[in-house]
Amino acid sequence: MRTRELFAPTLRQISGEVELASHRLLLRAGFVRQLAAGMYSLLPLGLRVVRKIENIVREEMDAAGAQELFLPALHPLELWEKTGRAQYWGDELMKLKDRTGRPFCLGGTHEEVITQLASEVKSYRELPFTLYQIQTKFRDDPRPRGGLIRVREFTMKDAYSFDRDVPGLDSSYETMVEAYHKIMQRVGLPYHVVDASGGGIGGWDTREFELPTEAGESHYLRCDSCGYAATPEVAQCKAEIEPPTEEEQALERVDTPDRRTIEEVTEFLGVPPKKLVKTLIYEADGRVVAALVRGDRDLSEDKLQLALGAKKLEMAEAATIERVSSAPVGFAGPVGLKEAEILADNELRGERNFITGGNEADLHLRNVNFGRDFEVKDWADLRNGEAGDLCPGCGEPLRAYRGIELAHVFKLGTIYSEPLEAHFLDEDGERKPMVMGCYGLGTTRMMAAVVERFNDDAGIIWPMAVAPYEAVIILLNHDDEEHRAIAEQLYVELQQDGFEVLLEDRPERAGVKFKDADLIGIPGQIVVGRLAGEGKVEVRRRGGESRTVPVGEAGGTLRELLSSNLPA
RNA sequence: CGGGGCGUAGCGCAGCUUGGUCAGCGCGCCUGCCUUGGGCGCAGGAGGUCGCCGGUUCGAAUCCGGCCGCCCCGACCA
């Protein structure tokens, strides 16, 4: 491709509102343009990068035995209603109607569609298999942000495995995880594998592949010494229980007029938040439960649900809270609570003389103690992990990270195959739902992640694996016949040698060409300039080495300089 | 959805507090000359219903109300 013809409008300046490096550079270098919030056009250069990423993903998926197919983006809403996800996703699901008024949605993910398709399987003999597609997803995010990091329309590779049982799923899952490791390594991105929760997809044993960067929007905790990593909701907390040192003191009633929140109460009473115990009322599969965590901690709903073995967990409605606590919302406490069974966080075992809600309007209780004042039904790890918590593996303190979520894998089990009746007949003659896994990887997001990780003051520095072109020939003096001839000859020869080459032949000044070449970030640069008269050119690696060589050696030198994925 | 910010020429911005002489700057673009290894130089030129609607006023980019759009933080989320 010649830059004279290439549609890649570069920008000298960009609005100060655009903050992320990846967002700024992809816009400035002419890879993407924004159509509306969270909606981006991929320009020719951007599309080439995404295609490279897709091809790596495709090769690794195929190598792992997965089969590519292509599903509709438009789904009958009815299908999402069958699994309950139409309601669960709510407004995040883009909905529309056809001319007859039949409701549809734009697929935010494809579990329903693929499961219905897979329900054609009749026998265990046809299992297992894994299907994948690379497709546009639509999610009506309440707040798109960060350029291409979080958008409303994006492309994703989503794979789904179907097995006859859980051991089969475990094996399919590991195969996909291995493929993901290979993909990350080929692209060249550093990453952490993080234990996570299922969220809107569901399932268990889910893991995220995170690019560690402050620009990211995911938060996780990681042990730098052993590599254990998890999101706060699922990070296992080692409870360091110290034997109580205080003597139990007499229970006291304290008036706390209109003080409901932890902040209000601690400020009013002049005590630190950790002296309080929060009482959170939930409904789990229809029963009411109260979860107790220290005042300065956050409850993990994932952990509570796990501890309860509940299928569905929701915060109780205000009316329920008022009923069981006999008080307005904000004054619930464990002492004298009605109906609800009480679960307490492990960390509270050593606590004495704490403050709780009083189950009465404008009342809290001081010097509350376990056993004497109320009974706990179960103890469990219920709180979110925090930076500084001790690693459950090796005991070192965990560190807080931010990251860009590149990929996410889930074990789904039968949560989709049951409602959609994707059954098969097993060897024992029994009809069983297929056991599923799903494996997502955002390809457009990955492009942004690569830029976020590989750039300098001058622009992008593409890894070879995903560069839009491998080399650019920069013809400085386009009017000089001899120079032009050399550039044209190199252009042909390098392509014959298998390089993907861009020829910078615009009638621009040298400075413009250099600036744009650095901004666009193509790894190989061949400068045809003042030394061309002596039959020499400069061969450079963007962000790395530069050599002046005879024209005839340009190809070999280029190959050498580009032999690594990243500049040395 | 809560909090904050922004919307003026193709792009980036100033002007708004204190209404009138306020349609301005830089880049880009067009013409000519010059220059040709890091976003040259000089001269001339084109280009804007100041996001939209309404209000206040003799007069609104500027003040007021409503709406729309975009960015950031939070909630939420893959």
Briefly summarize what is shown:
This protein is of the alpha+beta class and 568 residues long. The protein has three domains: 21-236 and 400-451, Bira Bifunctional Protein, Domain 2 (BirA Bifunctional Protein, domain 2, 2-Layer Sandwich), CATH 3.30.930; 252-380, YbaK protein (Alpha-Beta Complex), CATH 3.90.960; 459-561, 3-Layer(aba) Sandwich (Rossmann fold). 24% of the residues lie in helices and 29% in strands.
Structural description of this entry:
- Strand 25 (455-456) and strand 26 form a beta hairpin.
- Helices cover 24% and strands 29% of the residues.
- It is an alpha+beta fold.
- The protein contains 13 helices and 31 strands.
- Helix 1 crosses helix 10 (443-453) and helix 2 (44-63) crosses helix 6 (166-187).
- It is elongated and about 95 Å long.
- The mean pLDDT is 93.
- The strands form 8 sheets. Strands 3, 7, 8, 9, 10, 11, 12, 21 and 24 form a 9-stranded mixed β-sheet that branches. It has a 5-stranded mixed β-sheet with strand order 16-14-15-17-20.
- The longest helix has 22 residues, at 166-187.
- It has 3 domains: 21-236 and 400-451, Bira Bifunctional Protein, Domain 2 (BirA Bifunctional Protein, domain 2); 252-380, YbaK/aminoacyl-tRNA synthetase-associated domain (YbaK protein), CATH 3.90.960; 459-561, Rossmann fold, CATH 3.40.50.
- The chain binds one RNA strand of 78 nucleotides through strand 21 and helix 12.
Question: Which descriptors apply to this entry?
Answer:
single chain; 568 residues; alpha+beta; BirA Bifunctional Protein, domain 2; YbaK protein; Rossmann fold; nine-stranded mixed β-sheet; five-stranded mixed β-sheet; 13 helices; 24% helix; elongated; RNA-binding
